[in-house]
Structure formats: structure tokens, C-alpha cells
Amino acid sequence: MRLRFIAACVIAFSASVVRAQALADRVPEKVLLYVGWQGSESLGAGYQQSNLKGFLNDSNIPELVDEFLPRVLEKFGKGDAEAAAGMQLLSAIGGPVWRHPTAFFVADVEMKAGQPPTPHVALICDAGADADALKKELDAQVRKIPPGGPPVQVVRAAGLVTLSVGYGPGELKLPNPKSPDAKSLAADPTFLKALAIVGKGRAATLYVDVERLLATVDEAVTQFGPDEAKENWPKVREALGIGGLKRAIWTSGLDGKEWATNVFLAAPAPRTGLLSMLDGQPLSDPLLQSIPKNSTLAAAAHLNLAELVADVRTAVAKIDRNAAEQVDGGLRFVSEMLDLDVEKDLLASFGDEWAYYVDPAVAGRGTLGVTLVNRVHDAAKLDESLKKAQKSIQDFVTQQIHDKDVRFTFASTKVGDVEVNYLAIPLVTPSWAIKNGNLYVGLYPQVVATAAGRGAVKGDSILDNEAFAALRTRLGGEKASSFQFLDLPTTAIDSYGSWMAISHLDHFGDILGVPAPAMVLPPLNKLMARLSAAEQVSYSDADGFHLRAISPFPGAELLGSDPMAMMIPQQAMMVSILLPALNRAREQANRVKDASNLRQIGLAAMMYSNEKKGKFPDSLGELAKTQDITPQVFISPRTTTVAPPPGLRPDQAAAWVDEHADYVWAGKGKKNTAGADEILAYGKMESVTEGVNILYADGHVEFQMMEAAKELIEKSKKPEN
């Protein structure tokens, strides 16, 4: 009950927080975690003119959340008293928390020998006129909590309602903002320094003192962790480089009519371990010039694949030497399979700048025309390695298919002076080409041919897109090591239909007797009036890592892509992925039938030997001629051998079996007194790749992989000394 109650409070609060430093002057200094929400009724004067306010007014989302969903949950919670109580609790707490300034914090974790760690946690709500009702509901829930465990208390002071966990009576003393020496989070220099970087006055703030949090984890591992954790945790810290993390802060709120999000991760240089991978130089103009001006969706980032593998190997080696050897073994296996050095020949040939975009002039405005671009390090080497990898993959998959009528092939075609390589499968045809120092990858040859033929163009690139350029300047994107851009006024036209269909799933409520809003999303013409381009950039400096983003309103980014547009390529790729698995299942079934054939041959051979004083036949044809066994038994389902015409005479059947059987007879000259390890028959090896079934003299059948089967068969041919 205690855990459910605490969880309900946290859920109710976090559901509202996802959208400023509210009540920071009432939160103790030096907390591990702080989350502040200004309240929906305190978003500031700018809210009235904001896109968010307009969007909510034009939509029925408030009705959906405030009325429809509670009615649905109430109706279907009637048969579940616990669920109904949980909904009542969430409703009673969530309403005041959503409307009024609220803060949640974790002050510290108390650790005493022989006792589990006890966090000191509190939820503070400046509930105003809702204070009485909120306190009454919280008191009622606290009374239901069974004794034992951390103490839970509810305190009201004026309009401030505080729910605390882990504090004894009178232990939690909230700072008094009127006191000049109040030691609150609002006066904490480290918090203020971080806040100055991301900006004050936002609707929501999340702050984590990572340095203190790691120290808490260190203490917990030392006191309560098993020996293995005590040994490995310092290695993990070093390998990841997280010891260099100091603080993390996230703010989100109105910025004029739009919605801004800022993130700062304090990690002073020099950074070590995997954390150093977040370092990045500004994206180059040649990469940005490869993205067309009219792209409706575009993104770019730094990623050095060769360094990534090397850094991961180094990090893993610091934690577990055996695991590092397994990583190396895996790389060797892939290198052998592809017949190239994956790290030196393939990964090192890629460049460390990547981009992707959707340009209507390439393949229409849908995401099927998405194009991936890499500024390659060694074009000739990459071209050679990719083609070698294609051949190895093609050979490997072909070996798994075992169906001469099914092909898995890579091919190429020439479009102007661009050589486009592609995987010849239906619906989507993954393709690539290298042109003028760039690698282009797309879902179709047409996409790659168009993108590679265009190349990098000055004066007609994303740099010349006015919306992109304006947001880039506003966000400081000139130093960005990554960015994402969405031309929402354009993409919304294409995605609106799909999101409209999804939003109307709520009308299942009407069928079940709970009327849903007629429209959740606003009509398209009203939605378009609230939309503008959205962009996000990230960069690093000597102080740490930064992320800044602008969008028309929270969640508007969903309109940047059509949720149904990728269904065709997803299904096609799923079929491509499942084909080997389905083929494997068919192969397993064929192996079982193949083994059954050999068992029938073995049984017929035993009956023959009983008639011939223990002697086995000299050939399979002789067995087919003298025993009640059809020629079909000598055909393996793992091959394409065609059955003979019906009505053959015994001598004709024998001749056909001797010429066409898919099994090799090794029982000539042997008797039924032979040992259980004596081989009587086995599948023909030229017809299959992985291995064969083998029939032994005692009648049992075993499947052996090819190398083992060859060794056993050769050994059986040698006379015993």
C-alpha cells in the first residue's frame, strides 16, 4: 500500500512535469534531484498569445484528458476496487498538482548498517484554494498505509501542502524564503550556475546533482553491495567516464509564442571513457550542402564508427577482460564471414559526419524517400569493402535457402555516371552509391540515384533554407555538432490524415457507452495557423554538453512524420528478416522428414537381412526391388529430385533408385551384427550445405554438421587394424 501510494503521487506529479524552478526557494539546498512545475494556471502572460494556448483551444484534448479518460477508467474500474481507488487517488492529487506550482525532490539517502537505504523524498504543492481538499485526500491515503517502512507524513502550512517520505516528525524543515540566510536550492550556487546556462523562468525544470548522486551510489555499493559489485563498480565508473559528470539540468517552457527546451550536462574537459564520445566538432559546410534546401526533414551528427568500436572495446576491457576477448572474437567472426577486416577495411573507411533528409524533389514528401549521407574517409576502400561484404552476405544467405528457385542477390545499375548498388527484394530495395566523396543510402535505387546525382550544391542547400537558418542562428547552431530540423507546416499536410485516424481510436468509447469528443485534433486549417518549423541543436564546449530546441508547442514534432508512411518498408524489411527464419524452420522440418526416410530404409534393411541370413543388401536398388518400400522414400525433401512415374516394375524401380536416390548406401558387405556406430547410409553431401543425416546399423539416425559428417564417413571406410 505504501509503495502504491508513493507511486501514485509520483505519477501524478511527473505526468504534469513533463512540460520553473517552481518552489525552488522552499526546497533544501544540495538535493540529489529536483523537479519543478510552474502549474498550468501560472504559465505567464505570454501563454494567452502562445501557440500552445491556441492549439489547446482549437482541439478537444482538454476534454479528452479531463472528462473522457476519467469516465472510461471509472467505468472499467468498477469491477476492480483497487484500480478504482488508484484512479480516485490520481484524480485527487493530479488536479491540484497540474494546476498549481509544485516541486518534487530527493534530498538524500540515509544508510544505516543492517537497514535498507532510506531516501528522503518530498512533494510540495502550493495548492491555494485546493489545499484543504488535497491535504484531506493525502491524509486519508496515508492512514491506509500499514505500519513499518519509512515514515510518510502530510503537512499543511497556509496554502502549501507537503507530502514527505523518510522524514520523522518535525525533521523536514522547508527553507523560509523571507529569511535572508535561508539555505534553499534557489540560493545554491551550483544550481544557479547551471540555471544561468539553460535560462530561468521556464514552466518546468529538472535538476540532478550527478556528483552527489554518484557519491551516494558509491556509498551504497560499499555498504550494501556484494563483493562482485564492490569490485566492478569502480571499473564501470572509469570505463564510462561518468566520474567527470557534475550536474544535469533540463528546462522547458514558453519562448515567445513557441516552446523552448534547453539541456546542459556539466562535464568539464578533459573527458574520459565513453563520455568523451559526446565531444564533437561543428558540422562542416560540405555535409550541410549535401542536404537540399527544400528538405522537409533533416538531421546530422558526428559518429566515428571505428572509434566507437575501439572505445567500447577499451571500456569493456576495463570492466571484464574476458568480455573484451569475446568482443574481439565477435569482430573476428564477422571479419571472416565477410572476408575483410571489419575495423580497418570497412568501419575506418566511413567518415565521422552523417546526415539524413527527406526532400520532396527526390521521392515525394513521404519518408520512403529518406536519404542517408556519409562524408566518407576513403571512398575507394569503402566501395571495395561494401561490395566484398555484399558478396559474402549473398553467398551466406544463399547457402541457407536450399531452394534453387529462390534468389537473394545484390545487383547494380548505372544511372548517368552514378553506379547504384541495391539488394533485389520487393517493396523496398535498399540501395547505395558513392559519388564525389559521399556515400548515399536509400530505400530505393531512384532515391540514391537522385541524391548522388545532385551531390553537394552551394546556394541550394539547407543552409539557404530561411526557416532553418533563422532557427539555427537563434539556437546557436553554427557551433552545433548535431541538429534536427522539421518543416512542420509542410510535413503536417502529409501526416495529418494518419494522426487524425489514430486520434479517432477514442471512439471505441462510444461503442462501449462512454461518449468521446467528436474531434481530438483541431481541423487542419486551424492547426496550420499554429505551426512553424522546429529545430534542435547540440554541441559541446569546455564546460560540458548543451542541447537547445524550439518547437511551436509541446508534441508538435510528432507531425514531422507520418506514422503510417513507414508501414510498407517496415513490413517489407520484416519479411526480408523473417525469410531466413522461415527458411530455417522449413529446413528443420525437412531434416525430420529426411531422417524418417533413412529410418524406413534402415527398417527395410533389417527385414532384408533377416531373409538373407543376417546380410545387408549390396545396394539401395536391391532393397527397393525386394522390400515393400516405394521410390519416394529414397528422395530427400532437402533436394529438388523429382519422383519417378508411378507403376514401375520392381527391376525398373531398382534401376531408378540406384541412379537417382538422394542417399548413399554404405552397408554393402555388412551384417546385422554390426556395431551401433557402423554407418549404413547417409544423405548425399553435394545436395546440401550444413550437414547430413546418418543411418547407423542399429537403426538410429543422427544429424551431423558437414565437417563432422565427412570425418565420420571417411573413418567408417577405413578397415579396422
Brief summary of the model shown:
The protein is an alpha+beta fold.
Can you lay out the helices and strands and say which pair or pack?
Blueprint: H1 2-17, E1 33-37, H2 51-58, H3 61-76, H4 81-99, E2 102-110, E3 118-126, H5 131-143, E4 152-157, E5 160-165, H6 189-198, E6 204-208, H7 210-224, H8 227-240, E7 247-255, E8 258-266, H9 285-289, E9 297-302, H10 305-319, H11 321-338, H12 342-346, E10 353-358, H13 360-363, E11 371-375, H14 379-401, E12 410-415, E13 418-423, E14 431-435, E15 438-442, H15 445-454, H16 466-475, E16 482-486, H17 488-503, H18 508-511, H19 524-528, E17 534-540, E18 544-551, H20 567-611, H21 620-626, H22 650-660, E19 663-665, E20 679-683, E21 691-696, E22 701-705, H23 706-717
Antiparallel strand pairs: 1-2, 1-6, 2-3, 3-5, 4-5, 6-7, 7-8, 8-18, 9-10, 9-16, 10-11, 11-15, 12-13, 13-14, 14-15, 16-17, 17-18, 19-20, 20-21, 21-22
Mean pLDDT: 86
Q: Roughly how many Å apart are the termini?
A: 78 Å
Shape: elongated
Which stretches of 5+ consecutive residues score pLDDT under 50? 1-20
Secondary structure class reads: alpha+beta
Radius of gyration: 35 Å
Number of strands: 22
Biggest β-sheet: count, sense, barrel?
Answer: 18 strands, antiparallel
Instruction: Estimate the strand proportion.
Output: 15-25%
Helix content: 40-55%
